[in-house]
Structure formats: C-alpha cells, structure tokens
Here is the input.
Amino acid sequence: MKIQLETKDIIIFESSLYRTTSTLIDTENTLFLVDPNYLPLELEFIQQKVKERRGSKKLVLLITHADYDHIIGVNAFDYDALITTETFLTKRDIEKALYDLEAFEQSFYIHRDFELSYPVPTNLIKKNNQEFLFNSISVHGFLAPGHTIDSGFFIIKPLNILIAGDYLIDIEIPMIDDNLKDYKNTLDLFENLIENEDFSLVISGHGDYAKSKETVLKRIALDKEYLKLLEENVYQKQPFDLEFLKNFPNPIEMKAIHLRNVKNLVR
Ligand SMILES: [Zn+2]
Here is the structure.
C-alpha cells in the first residue's frame, strides 16, 4: 500500500481507490486512526502498522463522515473509542449509507473477513471546537456539513494536525451531497482557521496532504471558483465551462460529480 508520509508521529496511508487516505497518529499513550480504508489487503497493511505501534496504547478511531469509503474499515479494528459527529447518528440516512456501502462492495465482488455494519460511536461532536482529552493530547472536533450532512473534522493538539475529511482536496471539485449554503459556510470556517492558525499538516480524505498555508488557501480559492461557476450554471443558466475541470487529474469523473452537484442543487 502506498504511504504518503511516515514519521515517528504519523503515517498517512493512501488507497489505490480514489486515493482515499487513512491517517495514523502515534502519541505517547494513544493511537488515533482516521477513516481506515479501503481494499482488504490495504486494511491488513494498516492493521499490521497499528499492531507494530500499539503496545499498551489505546486505539481511538476518528471518523469524518458516513460515506462508505470512510466507514468501511471500522470493524477491522479493536478500538477503545470512536469519535464522530452527533449528526452521524441523528441526521444521516443510516439505511441509505449502509446500502451505498453494500452496493459499492458488491459492484466489485469484494469479500471481507469481517462483518459490515454502521459504526457505533462512543463520543459525539455536538458543537464546534469541542475538546476530547486523551492524556496530554487533545482532539478538537468540528461540525462541517455541506459535503454530507454529518461531515466533521478534527484538529489534534499539540501536534497541530488538521484532519479535514472530504474538504480541501487537491484532486477533486467540491462534492455537494448535502447543501451548497452549508458547504460555503464550512469552507469559510476552514479559511478562517487556516489564516489564523499554523498547522503542521492538513490532511484531506483524498489526494495529497498539504504543509503550507498557501497551498491550502489556493485549494480553497479554486473550490470557491468552482462553486461560483456551479451557481451561475444552475441559477443563471449560464453554460458550464468544462475546461475548468482540467484543473483536476480526472476530468471525466469530475464531470460526473459536477452533474450530480447540479442535480442536488435543483432538487
Ligand atoms: Zn470520501
């Protein structure tokens, strides 16, 4: 499995599917594992790395949202706590999330040696900047609807790592499965944080992690440019310039995502 980054504090794994990332943060008493995914051999690889580093440390799963690619690996790990948003339980259509998961698995005839189920959280993010303490490490949870209604993100202190979920992605246009207004508010929240704090790493759910403020601010600017084109396309009936999608490495798939966004905005 591809590893984007491996140090004593962190491993960023990258799946061959959609370049989805899983992040392992290794601290004195606790391992934090974010959205472990996807293919069976890839999950075995991550399990091995967790085993090597675990010892007597607690394992805490951080789940950014209930899309199938982010919840698939939960049952492959024997964890002590699982943190996600309250909306993951209260607002997300759980039946549909499970159906989407099963449908994706079946479309590739994927066989697992563990059961698939909807994750059961132990701790819920109910408001922005909610703090969860694990010895000297604090996890700050945020609510980030827009991509999905249950999306959230995390800041791990004092390492100052921002785990963005499916936002701030360098290889993808914004995917608006929830709603545009919330998406824009969430982007503003990220912009504010990025401008005012110094993160050592910003890790997105897909594609490359970022180290500099400038890189992330550029991604936000491109996201905003797309949202403007999307709005003009949907609300003012202006033609959408497909050339814009060549800013991303998979323009054919970006077109499909764009058309889905259009559909979601007019529904
Ligand atoms: Zn995703």
